[in-house]
Amino acid sequence: MNKLRLTSHRPDTRLEWLLYEPSDGRAWMGALLRFLQELPKGSVGLDVGCGNGKYLTVNPDIFIVATDRSENLVKIADEHRPHSSLVADNLSLPHPSSSFDFAISIAVVHHLSSHARRVQAIAAILDTLRPSGKSEQGPLCGGKALFYVWALEQKTSRRGWDAGDEQDVVVPWVMRTKKDGRSNEHSTTFHRYYHLYRQGELEDDVVEAGGSIADSGYEKDNWWAIAVR
């Protein structure tokens, strides 16, 4: 894969669901928007696998440390000040343990190629969250993390996958660019690995990673779950 070309593309919409899909996710990413917009003012959290930083501006009253493995995408995300962006691997996050109010992982974990690596990625994110507990003043509310992954059950989508189909797939993504500003388009196809999560599998992975499920659901071809430590 030509990583430099793949990650230099700049989407036009802030909440574009995937890097090359020309649609705005506002109509159906309700769980993500609620999660970010309902956070208390002053909350500090993580966007692990931030891509171009398209979720950093959803709530101006919170602060997000955004990470991605792509240097080019981090450069784009870093334009969303006052938030901070840096290059990091989901399996080896540089953040201190038990320190953050929240974290989001949107369309990231399903790109990891084994069950063990997916659980490790979830565990690494959970480790950064403030744990729940008790103090002299009363119960302490811990941090929470929101995960989104592609669903196997999406028979009404253009992809047509459903229960019983192969869960490990390679999906072609077409990037179209104009040469020298001319109307003629040039297209390049990239292939990306996905593990398609069956119903209940994301919740199982969270529990195996040491977390508990606070809420979960399905939104247009995706499973999501909110996890706490």
Report on this model:
By secondary structure, the protein is α/β, with parallel strands linked by helices. Helices cover 18% and strands 31% of the residues. It contains five helices and eleven strands, in the order ααββαββαβββββαββ. The protein has helices spanning 3-7, 30-37, 71-77, 115-127, 201-208, and strands at 44-48, 63-68, 84-87, 102-106, 133-135, 138-140, 144-150, 168-178, 185-195, 212-219, 222-228. The strands form three sheets. A seven-stranded mixed β-sheet has the order 3-2-1-4-7-11-10, with helices on both faces. The chain has a two-stranded antiparallel sheet with strand order 5-6. It has a two-stranded antiparallel ribbon with strand order 8-9. A hairpin with a 6-residue loop joins strand 8 and strand 9 (185-195). The radius of gyration is 18 Å and the shape is globular.
